[in-house]
């Protein structure tokens, strides 16, 4: 017996061009991130901030968003339609990002970054929850929709590198502002699906059996393990562009290097179902953690061994394993074990874990880069190992049955 009631007549109707519209949402959603992640640290450095200040500006919003994101994603679950909340948050992001046009003092940039993260971070989990409702209700393919986010991230990486090579890092705030504006326009076509389905009035025993609570050992170990593996990328995200520039690599090549990692990610999205579809989520995450460890061991050795830019491209290929498998594996776990009415909350908890641990490691990364430079990557290896150990604990408490569509 299922704990979910039948779909209402309105919910049975698939919105026109659902997959296309969600693909467009994901495409525009990731353009601001494709500029912010690789190039925002370069803008901060160009404005005269040192490595520790950059680490604080990057990490402080992460600590804040681990509190605010679960609250806003849970609010979206209770709203008349999650799409309305999504549009409102994108509009607020446009307004907040305009704050970077003000005089870029340390206090001002930190304040704007804190405000922006509150309204920006929920975009992705809310879009994910809409897409997963389509997976359950209409049999849509999550990876085929989500891959457009990776494609747009790639385009933003490449375009940003070319723009910055012509204008310098001062253009970063304007590009981010324009990207949010475009995301707002596209957000207006987000599919309206109504509320998520609520649990039917079954007995407590039935509900407990078929829709397990989120706060169980499997979900918690898995979510924390994913968060720790993701956090091992914090040093890379915060300082790799600065490192590449310090050894004489130009903005265009920096953009290409970031973009190549995303090409590998897109490739994984394209082949995942065919190659890894039958693997358990625990196996998928173990592969991701091992890929991260190999990546952080190899990265500091590229330039000293004379492998040059080609070596960096080779290591960036591991992005397909250490990042793409994490993204897909997390959604696969939620889709298999979390009832639809708890999807938004599950996304929020997962983002809480990712954000909190990434914030901690990002804060550590400033002093690490100041003292050790690129060798700071070696400190990411034990972090990834801890993530792997948590995934192993999750495997020991895995549920025996899945939640159906």
TrEMBL record:
The keyword Repressor does not apply. The chain crosses the membrane at residues 20-42, 54-76, 83-102, 108-127, 148-165, 171-190, 218-240, 252-272, 279-299, 305-328, 349-369, 375-395. It is found in: Cell inner membrane. Its main location: membrane. Keywords: Cell inner membrane, Cell membrane, Membrane, Transmembrane, Transmembrane helix, Transport. It comes from the Bacteria. InterPro entries: HcaT-like, MFS_assoc_dom, MFS_trans_sf. GO terms for molecular function: lactose binding; lactose:proton symporter activity. It is a multi-pass membrane protein. Gene3D superfamilies: MFS general substrate transporter like domains. The keyword Transmembrane applies. GO terms for cellular component: plasma membrane. Residues 21-379 form the Major facilitator superfamily associated domain. Coiled coil: none annotated. This is MFS transporter. The lineage of its organism: Bacteria, Pseudomonadati, Pseudomonadota, Alphaproteobacteria, Hyphomicrobiales.
